[in-house]
């Protein structure tokens, strides 16, 4: 379903969202509509799209609308855009609004060479004036809330945060999400939640904490240590949408994993055709990681093209009945080229 055909019943506001909400953090190559729907079914409170390039949205609107397709059940859904030019970003924000999204988020964290080279993503952390102009231009262009997701700094957290966050708030950002690693750190080392705490202390808008949130316990600990109103879950959701089930105590059984993986694959096929199943390969490896035979399965998924092949792949696991695996594992196993 295309968002344009739909109407929002209630205007979304970060301010009025209940404390403790857990969001599916934006992940390029991961948080497409199929995965978002699976996470939503498991209790994700707010979901983010993969980042979309603002200039691409203007240059190839039809392609972008297809890329940004979503289902009504995903609401509230926020579209994240990436760019470095205030005018282009404002124009793209209007497109996001016309597509019916509940909010528009700015990527100020992507460490990719190509993105940084174009003065976008984490590069904006070096230029608070331009970043603030982008937020201002977008805020003036649309009625939906504009939010910012950022890292702690480019080379050094100390010279960027929390000053940078305050500037974004003053420019009109209605919520801030912080992944407290610098661009230089990439995904290495521990996320420094003390920086999240410093930001929470200086801004008045809601703050979402990101970084190393791979369990219910980590969500609670991050919120207690930082005072962040919300949690943004990223790698902790890969192969593990159960992380969004707030009441869940036990890890999923292998039967639950099989049914969820198959439902996810069918959605991927329905929404993207055969290419959806190729993109599904990494998800399958994540779902079964930690279960017996997972290493061999990681090789087998590389040859997957059809749903029937996926059904054959998971068949041996059906015999394991109620085997459970705690998906709360170290992030090293989930390192991906982001
Ligand atoms: C594969 C991958 C893709 C990502 N893509 C985006 C993105 O498009 N936009 C964004 O703001 N952050 C992106 N991130 C960062 C995550 O949203 C999150 O902030 C970061 O991974 C830290 O959280 P974690 O330690 O819980 O994974 C990505 C991360 C990964 C692993």
TrEMBL record:
Per its UniProt record, what SUPFAM superfamilies does this chain match?
FMN-linked oxidoreductases
For FMN, which residues are the binding ones? 26-28, 80, 149, 179, 234-235
Gene3D superfamilies in the cross-refs: Aldolase class I, Putative flavin oxidoreducatase, domain 2
- Claim: tRNA processing is one of the keywords in the record: yes
What's its EC? 1.3.1.-
According to its UniProt record, which reaction does this protein catalyse?
a 5,6-dihydrouridine in tRNA + NAD(+) = a uridine in tRNA + NADH + H(+); a 5,6-dihydrouridine in tRNA + NADP(+) = a uridine in tRNA + NADPH + H(+)
| Cofactor(s) annotated in UniProt | FMN
Which residues are in the DUS-like FMN-binding domain? 24-311
The alphabetized UniProt keywords are: Flavoprotein, FMN, NADP, Nucleotide-binding, Oxidoreductase, RNA-binding, tRNA processing, tRNA-binding
Cited PANTHER family: TRNA-DIHYDROURIDINE(47) SYNTHASE [NAD(P)(+)]-LIKE
Protein name (record): tRNA-dihydrouridine synthase
What organism is recorded for this protein?
A: Candidatus Chlorohelix allophototropha
């Amino acid at each position: 379903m295309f968002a344009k055909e739909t109407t929002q019943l209630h205007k979304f506001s970060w301010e009025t969202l209940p404390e403790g909400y857990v969001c599916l953090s934006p992940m390029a190559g991961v948080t497409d509509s199929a995965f978002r729907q699976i996470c939503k079914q498991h209790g994700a409170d707010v979901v983010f799209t993969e980042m979309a390039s603002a200039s691409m949205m203007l240059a190839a609107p039809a392609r972008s609308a297809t890329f940004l397709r979503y289902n009504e059940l995903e609401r509230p859904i926020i579209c994240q855009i990436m760019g470095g030019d205030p005018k282009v970003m404002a124009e793209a924000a209007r497109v996001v609004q016309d597509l019916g999204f509940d909010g528009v988020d700015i990527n100020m964290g992507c460490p990719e060479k190509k993105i940084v080279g174009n003065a976008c993503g984490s590069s904006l952390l070096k230029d608070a004036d331009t970043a603030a102009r982008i937020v201002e231009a977008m805020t003036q262009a649309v009625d939906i809330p504009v939010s910012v997701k950022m890292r702690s700094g480019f080379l050094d957290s100390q010279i960027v945060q929390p000053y940078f966050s305050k500037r974004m708030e003053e420019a009109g950002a209605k919520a801030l999400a912080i992944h407290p690693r610098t661009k230089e750190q990439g995904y290495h080392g521990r996320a420094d939640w003390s920086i999240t705490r410093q930001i929470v202390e200086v801004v008045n808008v809601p703050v979402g904490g990101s970084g190393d949130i791979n369990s219910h316990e980590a969500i609670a600990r991050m919120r207690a240590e930082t005072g962040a109103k919300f949690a943004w879950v990223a790698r902790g959701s890969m192969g593990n949408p159960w992380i969004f089930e707030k009441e869940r105590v036990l890890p999923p059984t292998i039967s639950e994993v099989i049914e969820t993986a198959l439902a996810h694959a069918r959605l991927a096929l329905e929404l993207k055709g055969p290419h959806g199943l190729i993109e599904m390969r990494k998800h399958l490896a994540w779902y079964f990681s930690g279960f017996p035979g997972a290493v061999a399965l990681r090789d087998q998924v590389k040859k997957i093209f059809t749903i029937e092949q996926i059904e054959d792949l998971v068949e041996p696991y059906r015999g394991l009945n109620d085997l459970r695996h705690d998906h709360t594992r170290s992030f090293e196993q989930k390192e991906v080229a982001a």
